[in-house]
Design goal:
Largest sheet: 3 strands, mixed
Keywords: Acetylation, Membrane, Metal-binding, Mitochondrion, Mitochondrion inner membrane, Transit peptide, Zinc
CATH topology of the largest domain: Cytochrome C Oxidase, Chain F
Low-confidence stretches: none
Organism: Chiloscyllium punctatum
Main location: mitochondrion
Strand order of the largest sheet: 1-5-4
Shape: elongated
Oligomer: single chain
GO molecular function: metal ion binding
Radius of gyration: 21 Å
CATH superfamily of the largest domain: Cytochrome c oxidase, subunit Vb
Number of strands: 5
CATH class of the largest domain: Mainly Beta
Number of domains: 2
Structural class: alpha+beta
Helix content: 10-25%
CATH architecture of the largest domain: Sandwich
Number of helices: 2
InterPro entries: Cyt_c_oxidase_su5b (IPR002124), Cyt_c_oxidase_su5b_sf (IPR036972)
C-alpha cells in the first residue's frame, strides 16, 4: 500500500466533479443554472413588472397581493405585454426562459 502525504487540503472547487463542478463554474461566472439564488425583486409596476420566466407562451401565476394575506389569486400570464393581477393590480410579464 502506498501512502500519499499532502501538504494541503484541496478546496471544494478542486475536488468537485460532475454536476457539482458544473454548478460551481456557472456560479463563478454569475449564472444560476438551477435558480438556487433569490430572484431579483421588482416593483410590480407597469415600468418594472415582476418577471416570470417560462419555456412556453403562457404560465399559471399566483399572486399573494398583500404581505400577510393567506389567499392566493391564480391567473394565466401570457407572452407579450405585461399583465395585471386581477385583484391587486400588480404587473407581471412573461419572458422566455433560456437554459
Amino acid at each position: 500500500m502506498i501512502l500519499v502525504s499532502w501538504d494541503w487540503i484541496p478546496t471544494d472547487e478542486e475536488q468537485a466533479t460532475g454536476i457539482e463542478k458544473m454548478i460551481m463554474q456557472a456560479m463563478k461566472t454569475g449564472k444560476d443554472p438551477f435558480n438556487m439564488l433569490k430572484p431579483k425583486e421588482y416593483a410590480g409596476t407597469k415600468d418594472d413588472p415582476h418577471i416570470v420566466p417560462s419555456v412556453t407562451n403562457k404560465r399559471l401565476v399566483g399572486c399573494v397581493c398583500e404581505e400577510d394575506n393567506t389567499a392566493v389569486i391564480w391567473f394565466w400570464l401570457h407572452e407579450g405585454d405585461a399583465q395585471r393581477c386581477p385583484s391587486c393590480g400588480a404587473h407581471y410579464q412573461l419572458v422566455p426562459h433560456h437554459h
